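User: For a reading group we're discussing how well predicted structures match intuition. Take PmbA protein. Before you show the prediction, I'll give you the sequence so everyone sees exactly what went in.
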Amino acid sequence: MSALDHLSALLAAAKRAGADQADALLGSGASVSVGRRMGKIEEIERAESNNIGLRVFVGKRSAIVSSGAVDPASFDRLAEQAVAMAKVVPEDQFADIPDAPPPDDAAALDMDDAVEPSIDTLMARAAAAEEAALAFPGITNSEGAGASWSRSHVALATSRGFAGAYSRSGHGVSVSPIAGEGVGMQRDYEYSSSVHGSDLSDPAVMGRAAAERAVSRLNPGRPVTAKLPVVYHPRVAGSLLGHFTGAINGSGIARGTSFLKDAMGKPVFAPGISIIDDPKRVRGMRSRAFDGEGQRVERRALIEDGILTTWLLDSRSAAQLGLKTTGHAARGTSGPPSPAASNLYIEPGTLSAEALISDIKLGLYVIELIGMGVNGITGDYSRGAAGFMIRDGQIAEPVAEITIAGNLREMFMHLTPANDLEFKRGTDAPTLRVEGMTMAGG
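Assistant: Thanks. Here is the predicted 3D structure of PmbA protein, as structure tokens, for the group to look at:
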């Protein structure tokens, strides 16, 4: 039986058990990962999984059951358990299974690399990254390098007639060299991920870049507390977009627990700033043919010319707010849908990263963030950081064990992007400069 055949059988079992409505999700996949450290193989792992989930509705009551075994002989039992659970839980007036159109063509998104790399290929990728890092002057040790491959298959069917499926592949390489000796050691890292193996960054280039940064971080200082511009390296700049999408998540808006709950249609970022969510990007890390409720997905400007244009909504949060879903439902087999972004990015600016820094008399260049000190209700922001001081428009000495703080409302309004955007992570940003933050040091 195909995945959709399994789901059709499970929905039929739900109907026999007394469900008024139901939807079913099947997720299967395989993954391989290898790791090496200091030239020696440390791990080779392969994992395979199959999971199936059923959500049933009895009136306005619902329940979810899931299983790691996709066995049609067990479907009646699963359905009976789900219906029995649904009958004893409180009603939810907002939860429902929405009508959904036929799915878009997943093949157009080119999300599945037909070539599964061999173990030797994965080991060669990891070796190239680590060997390039170890060859760099000043590198004394390594936390290791790794390479991975995965393929997953998602299928969704509902009692309202929707049925769709798509597959996705993923390749990854990472490396983390160490510079220095004893208590003065410093580490850094580099990684690359892509849907197709041909789109991975050159592992040797990655190894050298990580090694150069690790050496440059030796002997960090702790600067005095100051209020200054903070510049985020692209690998950490995307975290600000994560805080933004958390604040426009429809579930939080419906509860009134977001610092942006009253910001619809108002300026949230400076004029000229646009933030895009694009689930239809070809070979995108988070592309999808439909959302977790079978709804059509589309490219949206969440921020346009600084103005907030939409919430991230699934059908439940949309119903709570008296709106329509935006096609942002995400889910697994054991939980209900909830809103989430897909391929998220901030559009690049016009200045190079060097030009963005050039007029800063005293500032901070952040390359690593620690902790998650963000209050989603107030927007208060405080995170541990490491990086380099900026002096007279130039990257200067390394610093560590510092804290940067501000309020996200103010930070968003005083944010400037550089022109060095690259699509590498799923949530992507160019170098970002934020004015007027507080740096707490020694």
